[in-house]
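Methods — Computational structure assignment.
A single polypeptide chain was analysed. Its primary sequence is given first, followed by the predicted tertiary structure written as C-alpha cells.
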Amino acid sequence: MEAFLSSTLAVAIAEIGDKTQLLALFLAARFHQKSAIIAGIFVATLFNHLFSAVLGVWLAQFISPEMMKWIVGVSFIAVGLWLLVPDKDGGTDKRWLKYGAFGATAVLFFLAEIGDKTQIATVLLAAKYQAMFWVVAGSTFGLMLANVPVVFLGRAMMKKIPAKAVRTAACVLFCLLGMVTLAGGGIALH
C-alpha cells in the first residue's frame, strides 16, 4: 500500500504544471468529448507507466541493494530539482488531431510522457518498491488526479493554482523521498 500511496502522491504533485496538463487543456478546448479525452489520458498513461515500472523492476535485478539505494535516492533529489524548472509548451503536433478525441489524446499523451518527470519517477518508484502493480496503479491514478480536473475545469483552474508554489512543494517532496531513501528508510530490494 505504501508503493501505491507514494506513487499517487509523487506523480500527482509532479504532474501539476507539467506539459501534459497543458496538453489536457488544449485537447479539452479542441474536443468536446470529455470522456474520450479522459479515456485517452488513462490508456496512454497506463501503457507508458507500465513500461516504466517494468524497466524499473528489471533494472533493480542487476544492481546491488546498496547501489540501488544511492541511484534511487540521488535520482529522487535530481527529479525534485528538475521540478523547479517549468515546462515549456513546445506546441502540439496537430497531425494527430485527425484521429479524434480519444486517438489524438492517447497518442499525444503517450509521446508527451516519454522522458517526462512522471515517467522517470515511475521507473524510480518501481525500482524502489519492487511492487510493479501498485506503482503503476498509483502513478496512473496520480496522473489522472492531476489531469481530469483540467479537462473539466480548464483555464479557470489554471489561473487559481500558483504553479511556482506547487513546483516548490513537489521539489521538497522528491528531495525528502531522496534523503529518506539515502538514509536507508523504506527501501526493500530483494
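Note: Residues 132-160 form the longest helix (29 residues).
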